[in-house]
Amino acid sequence: MLSGRPAEEMPRSAGDLLSELSQLHEQVRQVMQGIAQALWPSVSLPKGIVELTEKLKGARRRFLLWKISACRQGAREAWTMVKTRYTKAGPNHMAEVGPVGPDGKEIPISLVYGQVELAAKYSQQDCKLDRLLDGIEEEFSQSA
């Protein structure tokens, strides 16, 4: 252009701007739809951006529920492993008392994390995170 200003500073035609905005709008809608699909895999999703925006307002709560669900599932699997190995063990009592060594002193659980990390990765393959544990949404709603 002969104005001496860089091309990106030059005003564009309304048609060009509208075309760019339409493309950007479609990209945003697709990203929002992908996020909503990941968060609610079993729910049919709205197509419009306004409806998607309303749906995504619940995303923070959904992430929190997934976090609680994953934590609970991990604990469930860990206690199942303990119970199958030590059939007379009382997981409820152990969970209340905590890890105590033969000397009666508490054992910091962080000391054994490194020893169980590989097993946790193998067990993770059995844990389906595409849905929440049964009843956790209702339970969370009652406690909040």
Task: Summarize the helices and strands and which ones pair or pack.
Elements (H helix, E strand, L loop, with lengths): L13 H26 L9 H8 L2 H27 L5 H7 L15 H12 L11 H8 L1
Helix pairs in contact: 1-2
Describe this structure in words.
With 144 residues, this protein is mostly helical. The chain has helices at 14-39, 49-56, 59-85, 91-97, 113-124, 136-143. The chain is elongated, with a radius of gyration of 26 Å. It comes from Triticum aestivum. This is Rx N-terminal domain-containing protein.
List the keywords.
elongated; 2 domains
Q: Helical proportion?
A: 55-70%
Number of spatially distinct domains: 2
Query: What form results from the Cα inertia axes?
Result: elongated
- End-to-end distance, in Å? 61 Å
Taking the sheet with the most strands, its summary is: none
Overall pLDDT: 80
Query: Structural class of the helix and strand makeup?
Result: mainly alpha
Spans of at least 5 consecutive residues with low confidence: none
Order of helix and strand elements from N to C terminus = HHHHHH
Radius of gyration: 26 Å
Query: How many extended strands?
Result: 0
SS strand fraction = under 5%
Number of continuous helical runs = 6
Care to give the gist of this entry?
The chain has 144 residues and is mainly α. It has helices spanning 14-39, 49-56, 59-85, 91-97, 113-124, 136-143.
